[in-house]
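Dear support,

Our group has been running a series of protein-ligand predictions, and this particular one with Phenylacetyl coenzyme A is the one our PI (initials K.S.) wants archived with full inputs and outputs. We had some confusion internally about which version of the output was final, so please treat the block below as the authoritative record. The input we submitted was:
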Amino acid sequence: MEAGELLERFEAFVASEGKIESDSWMPDAYRKTLVRQISQHAHSEIIGMQPEGNWLTRAPSLRRKAILLAKVQDEAGHGLYLYAAAETLGTSRDEMVDALLDGTAKYSSIFNYPTPTWADIGAIGWLVDGAAIMNQVPLCRCSYGPYARAMKRVCKEESFHQRQGFDILVTLCRGSDAQRAMAQDALDRWWWPSLMMFGPHDGDSPHSATSMRWRIKRFSNDELRQRFVDVTVPQAHFLGLRIPDDELVYDDTTGHWKFGEPDWDEFQRVLAGDGPCNAERIERRTRAHVDGAWVREAAEAYAAKHVAAPAA
Ligand code: FAQ
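Confirmed final output from the archive:
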């Protein structure tokens, strides 16, 4: 079959909600954008363990520590499902990890911000997991089967994460003046970076149009950002916190909250590696990778001895 005909059949198939599997024919650009998105997503889950891991030894109670530990372990699991999903497209996990450690692969900008207080753990769960859910629930319907299936469990776990973060903030906001001030300070610092998680405006997003045509993305960056703001503003009001945006106003005619512009220069700086914690995150991940070399070597030695090679 000619390449043009294959592409036409592929496009008609995804347009009719067909699922592409690892052995299906797919255009090179579809494979490439999926490896790019899924591996960036996997790296985000793995790097995202660090800002929260920072509080594991200092959680305010045994119960809070157990909950946070479960959440951080969930993120590790998400990273592993996602690396496995990306591997079905023919790129090895080693290649993806190398790209993360040598700085050629991206991970979400949000994880380059510090977590100086316990309220930051609440803000990450509430806002960062909240934004992740908004972005990832539509990915359960992604046209690439292995990614869509991985996302189902990820989304269920992210819902628990969002609830635990909100619960931390409810406790702080019902506490002392100092606790309320700590919660407000965390919201002030995490609000704008959370809006940046959805990516650049639609007009500045080079991948969106094709990814939407191929049913990888179901909604645009701006659509998801607006949904997030609409859902989150009433939650902030419930907590008695102020969203740090003087332009935030409810628009009766559209039923949506209008909001101001994130600092897109800051977003570009963080993507270029110049955020508050970029260097620290990669340095720590590299150290963990080097320290874990013996585990990989032991697994390879075991596999060489006990796991039969696949039939040629
Ligand atoms: N940070 O054309 P677009 C989580 C890049 S997981 C860094 O709009 P696209 C769970 C983009 O990659 C959070 N880079 O791109 C958790 C592209 O660069 P490239 C991660 C960003 O792919 C919670 C360029 O800008 N979630 O939070 C960002 O169509 C708590 C142009 O952008 C996912 O990865 C950014 N914020 O849309 C874990 C979800 N935004 O590749 C621990 C899956 C854009 O050309 C604790 N990914 N870029 O070099 C997606 O939905 C999409 O990839 C977007 C970007 C929406 C992120």
